[in-house]
């Protein structure tokens, strides 16, 4: 009697179930990663603007302007130099004194368009760093 021959080794059923990602899973993760990448790209300029405003305000406060008007003029000069500052003006600054040091505060909202009528609202606020000597 002839014994049945075993199938070629390439056609045997695997002992472990197949693993991996399906096409739909790949598409889902590509969309999710793409969406968050898009959000990152459209919000980075607003973060850069916030950091520029923060540096300008800290620099102005460190120079200890004598009057509120002088501090506002210094911010307007800095705003003319830094092209990325467009969300606030010197009128939006709150200038006070704490322990004989000038403190400049600011707050503003930035709307970033996502798609059609959908916007991302980011609320920024900051104040000058108080330098201790």
List keywords for this structure.
alpha+beta, 133 residues, 23% strand, 41% helix, 3-stranded antiparallel sheet
Low-confidence stretches: none
Question: What topology, given as strand order, has the largest sheet?
Answer: 1-2-3
What proportion of the residues is helical, as a percent range? 40-55%
Q: Can you tell me the overall shape?
A: rod-shaped
Strand proportion, as a percent range, falls in: 15-25%
> Which structural class do the helices and strands define?
alpha+beta
Q: Roughly how many Å apart are the termini?
A: 101 Å
Secondary structure tally, helices: 2
State the total count of DSSP E strands: 3
Domain count: the total is 1
Q: Average the pLDDT over all residues and give the rounded result.
A: 88
Q: What order do the SSEs take from the amino end to the carboxyl end, as H and E? A: HHEEE
* Radius of gyration (Å): 29 Å
Biggest beta-sheet profile? 3 strands, antiparallel
């Amino acid at each position: 009697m002839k014994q049945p021959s075993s199938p070629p080794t390439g056609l045997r059923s695997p002992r472990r179930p197949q693993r991996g990602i399906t096409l739909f899973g790949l598409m889902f993760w590509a969309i999710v990663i793409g969406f968050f990448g898009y959000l990152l790209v459209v919000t980075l300029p607003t973060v850069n603007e916030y950091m520029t405003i923060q540096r300008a305000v800290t620099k102005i406060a460190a120079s200890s302007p004598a009057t509120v008007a002088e501090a506002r003029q210094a911010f307007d000069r800095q705003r003319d130099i830094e092209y990325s500052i467009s969300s606030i003006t010197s009128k939006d600054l709150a200038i006070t004194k704490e322990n004989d040091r000038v403190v400049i505060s600011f707050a503003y909202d930035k709307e970033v368009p996502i798609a059609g009528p959908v916007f991302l609202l980011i609320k920024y606020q900051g104040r000058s760093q108080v330098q201790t000597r």
